[in-house]
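Researcher: We plan to redesign the surface later, but first we want a full-length starting point. Tokens attached.
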């Protein structure tokens, strides 16, 4: 996958891994909200902010808390609306890829305190790639609506994150169905899983891993069968 990619009309990023949500809320002294178990929530990111594998990423102006986020994503290949939440929902998917939902945590913290967002803490960069792998190549790892794929993240060769995509609380059919409720999904729409448990510095805490990302750092996200997505912080 090299830029320009086939037209990406939208990016919906979900919040589907319970471990990530619970841990990040616990760091702030908060319990889980019951509503999280009622609906697979997502936010819209910026499709014009997509960068490719090996491209440099730059923190937005004023940010000193750049973070990576280790995610699995699907790209829609066939238009659909009000898609039922069963395995046939995967017929609408062109394939799966790795997603790095770069985050400026200091900007995000201010935005979220207002109760709306995230916006400028997220929209400056999203990386997708390095390959788009079709679902038929992954069917042997698919069960109960989830893909069983090992996921890891390294910074400058040091592994910080490890998880498995099968630990998603919400399933891919549920995410696709919710995204398509009352609206059309179009070819090129991206659905992100959200961050796998341990899959970012915010969750691990910067104190535990030596701080936020800094210029010169090389971030490598690896998902089994999908390859390694690599970017250097400029």
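Model: Full-length starting sequence:
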């Amino acid at each position: 996958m090299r830029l320009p990619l086939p037209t990406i009309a939208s990016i919906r990023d979900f919040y589907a891994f319970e471990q990530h949500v619970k841990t990040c809320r616990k760091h702030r002294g908060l319990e889980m909200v019951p509503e999280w178990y009622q609906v697979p929530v997502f936010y819209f990111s910026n499709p014009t902010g997509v960068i490719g594998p090996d491209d440099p990423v730059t923190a937005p102006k004023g940010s000193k808390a750049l973070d990576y986020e280790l995610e699995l994503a699907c790209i829609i290949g066939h238009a659909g609306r009000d898609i039922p939440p069963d395995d046939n929902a995967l017929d609408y998917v062109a394939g799966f890829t790795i997603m790095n939902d770069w985050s400026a945590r200091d900007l995000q913290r201010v935005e979220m305190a207002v109760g709306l967002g995230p916006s400028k803490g997220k929209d400056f960069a999203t990386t997708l790639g390095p390959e788009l792998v079709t679902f038929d190549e992954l069917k042997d790892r698919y069960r109960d609506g989830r893909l069983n794929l090992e996921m890891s993240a390294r910074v400058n060769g040091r592994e910080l994150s490890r998880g498995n995509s099968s630990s998603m609380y919400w399933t891919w059919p549920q995410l696709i169905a919710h995204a398509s409720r009352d609206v059309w999904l179009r070819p090129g729409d991206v659905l992100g899983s959200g961050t796998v448990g341990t899959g970012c510095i915010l969750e691990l805490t910067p104190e535990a891993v030596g701080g936020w990302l800094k210029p010169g750092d090389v971030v490598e996200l690896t998902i089994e069968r999908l390859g390694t997505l690599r970017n250097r912080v400029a």
